[in-house]
User: What shape does this take?
Amino acid sequence: MQFKKRFLMVFMSLTLLAGMMGGGSVVAADEGKTQVVTLSNFDILFPMPADLEKAIVHDIPKTPVIIDGVLYQPEQISSFDGQRLHFTSGKDGKEYAFTTSESLEKFLVSEFGTGWKGPGEGYGILAEGNNVFFKDWYFGGGYVSYWSGTSVPNLGSFTNSISSMRLTNSVTLCDLVNYGGDTRMYVYGVYTSLFFDGWNDKASSLVTWSD
Assistant: This one.
């Protein structure tokens, strides 16, 4: 029993280290087991409790949104209240949303190819992580950084505080802790302000992606 406990402690430490070094996002499933997080299985690994999903009331977007291939005017998004949506932007600059993460992944591949996760240019503060999140617009205020392949279930003091980003790899921001609520995918690059996407000071957890 003592050996088993020591083994599990070593295993968990190595798993955490791999995530910090960009070895791929992982989430503990059962004792002594891990499962790789992919965008297509995001909804399966992070299901929302029915009562929390039912309580979702979507913010009215600033522009029309194409949801599962159908164009909706901003105020029509209320018809999806009580259901989690996964948002992103297309190469055409339009807003897109999907009712499943699997559909979102198919869209990203069609828009950006299989390399949608990155990496792009190295924007990070290398001693701390290669994806940097700032409290103010234009990379001001305090910051926190994470290596690609890291899952963060609770942003702590950065909850509802992220306003700009420098991303070496693509990132999913989540409205609630433990990857709950609506999500928004940001493909790797520089984002000076999240205001116009409706995600300024909104994220409570996140996933950074890696190959």
Remarks:
- DSSP finds four helices and 14 strands in the chain.
- Confidence is low (pLDDT under 50) at residues 1-35.
- The radius of gyration is 17 Å.
- The first strand starts at residue 26 and ends at 28.
